[in-house]
Design goal:
Layout (H helix, E strand, L loop, with lengths): L30 E5 H5 L11 H7 L8 H33 L8 E7 L5 H12 L8 E5 L7 H7 L13 H12 L5 E7 L4 E10 L4 E5 L25 E6 L2 H15 L19 H24 L8 E5 L5 E7 L2
Parallel strand pairs: 2-6, 2-7, 3-6, 7-8
Antiparallel strand pairs: 1-9, 4-5, 8-9
Helix pairs in contact: 3-4, 7-8
């Protein structure tokens, strides 16, 4: 079990460009910028509970996750999140005292967003494992928004198969209802099951969430703002139910290359399975695979990133920025 000890080093406010905020009046920012070395000291006396076997299990295809990154990036982040969870519990107790009630504390919800191939799934899985090791949060569930994509048959009917992953390809109402019910403290909430092998929702199979201490919701558009209704009123955004939100960021050129590399690797992996939706790509040559991946990226994933995903980055409470080698080197933490 993890335990936090020691003091926290002082961190000065900095602009996104790295200059001290106090010296650049025109560049005031709602974020504190921390380099990896400074960030790593925020939990320097806590030992990582994960080993190499855990890392291999949690690491996504093409990701550079290692023990150093867990210790220097994710362990401090898990400590920060644990402090947020504890603070939420104290606020709940204070509210109960004020109202003279004894209501049950509801789950703490964390949103993790970012582009295709940027590594947000790895981030979500590592955080789930680490948060499970902290006191008071043994029950941590992870749900991806893939399960709330419309089935392929419905996407075909709507003419959206080439826009899969865009906001309109999701059953947004069902996703909002799911997170709302979890956040309200429902005893049991069910979500559809998505198969990356068949590239579709699996009929009759579900994910069951039973009152977790923490729920992590991971997906492309989790930080999207609320839509404006036909009558001009604003509806609910998924992020309205989040207690903390994370955006995994990198230069678009880096993500494009990661996407291509992942596509090429999948030819001998998931694509080789005859049941795979993408089995037709398994026999492509290296050059054909690269051309195909670039075509898919530039027609679908990059436009979605630029129009719908990247604009939500500033809505996150924490931005994790990756370098070309996939390692996280910089953190932007929203001031509170």
């Amino acid at each position: 079990m993890l335990r936090a000890t020691g003091t926290i080093p002082r961190v000065s406010d900095r602009t996104p460009g790295g200059a001290p905020a106090s010296t650049v009046e025109s560049n005031f920012t709602p974020f504190v910028e921390l380099e990896r070395q400074t960030w790593s000291r925020l939990s320097h006396e806590i030992k990582s509970p994960l080993n190499l076997e855990d890392i291999q299990r949690l690491r996504g295809l093409g990701d550079a996750l290692n023990l150093d990154e867990v210790r220097e990036v994710y362990l401090p982040l898990s400590r920060l999140l644990y402090l947020y969870v504890a603070a939420a519990g104290e606020l709940h107790s204070a509210t109960n005292t004020f109202l003279g009630e004894q209501t049950t504390r509801t789950p703490f919800v964390i949103g993790v967003g970012g582009s295709v191939a940027v590594g947000k799934s790895t981030t979500a899985r590592v955080l789930r494992e680490l948060l499970r090791r902290w006191p008071d949060t043994p029950n941590v569930e992870l749900v991806t928004t893939d399960g709330f994509l419309y089935p392929n048959e419905e996407l075909e009917r709507r003419g959206l198969m080439q826009r899969k992953g865009f906001p309109e390809s999701y059953d947004r109402r069902r996703l909002l209802r799911f997170v709302s019910e979890v956040k309200s403290g429902a005893e049991e909430v069910r979500a559809p099951w998505y198969s990356h092998l068949t590239y579709n929702i699996v009929p009759g199979r579900e994910i069951v969430v039973r009152r977790p201490d923490v729920l992590i919701v991971e997906g492309l558009n989790v930080l999207a703002p609320a839509r404006t209704r036909a009558d001009g009123r604003s509806g609910l955004a998924l992020s309205d139910f989040f207690d903390f939100s994370i955006y995994v960021d990198a230069k678009t050129s880096y993500i494009e290359e990661w996407y291509v590399q992942r596509f090429q690797s999948l030819r001998s992996g998931a694509f080789a399975n005859p049941d795979s939706y993408f089995h037709r790509y398994a026999s492509l040559t290296d050059e054909e695979a690269r051309d195909t991946a670039l075509d898919i990226w530039r027609r679908i994933n990059e436009p979605n990133l630029m129009a719908n995903v990247l604009p939500t980055r500033g809505r996150a409470q924490l931005v994790l920025t990756k370098e070309a080698d996939h390692s996280i080197r910089r953190m932007l933490l929203r001031k509170t």
